[in-house]
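Bumping with the actual sequence this time:
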Amino acid sequence: MELVIGYLVSIIPGILMLLWLRKSIRNVEGYERRFSKAFVRGMLSILMVSLLGFVLSVILGLTVDKKEHYLLHTALHNFVVVAMSEEISKYLACRHVLKKDAPDASLLETVVYAISAAMGFGFLESIVYAFTTNVMQMIVRGVTMMHGTFAFTVGRFMVKDRKSGKKAYTWLGLAISTFLHGLYDFCLDEKLNEMNEWTGAVSLLLAVVSLVQVFLIIRYVRRKRVLEEYVAPFHAASADASPGQQLPH
């Protein structure tokens, strides 16, 4: 029963955020459908994560001996096998929706679809965590919505990419989210915590930062949804809209 209650508590904040985001952009035809599709694509990305993670895990096992090089093996597992494979897969899920269903999606939609896809993946992952981790850690992951906040970082860099045409921005966003994701997981390692108690403090700090990011997502969406530059179809926005121009309330 404790496990069930913990799981329900962990998914409620994410559900509320998704419902709010789904209704946050008005008067855009097809937005809610694409938002839902991004969520489903994010759920399906768990297949790619599983495959990519398996391949990387095999390569890691063949190249680095865990007993002899525990720290190196743990770092590569968390930063590459887990974090990198998940962040890339979530990004590709969002990119698929943008390319196939919304090539002229607004800049704000870009960020929101990235969050939706990430939280779709996180929803399925939380089911796995319900059987493999403790209740407190499960609740922390749910309340801080880390997959969503990491995607928020990537989404904002994707906006810079679309505005400037420089793909390096997207790669930078993925690098930052992968590093933070990997660092959080790395610092939760039990054996590492026994070796250095400060690693637990780092994971706690990252959880707090992620919680702050949740409120920044709300603030970002509320501010940008009244700016023509961010809600108009992208090509129209880049050609016709003046930066900072507000929409009528």
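The tokens above came from a reply further down the thread. DSSP finds eleven helices and no strands in the chain.
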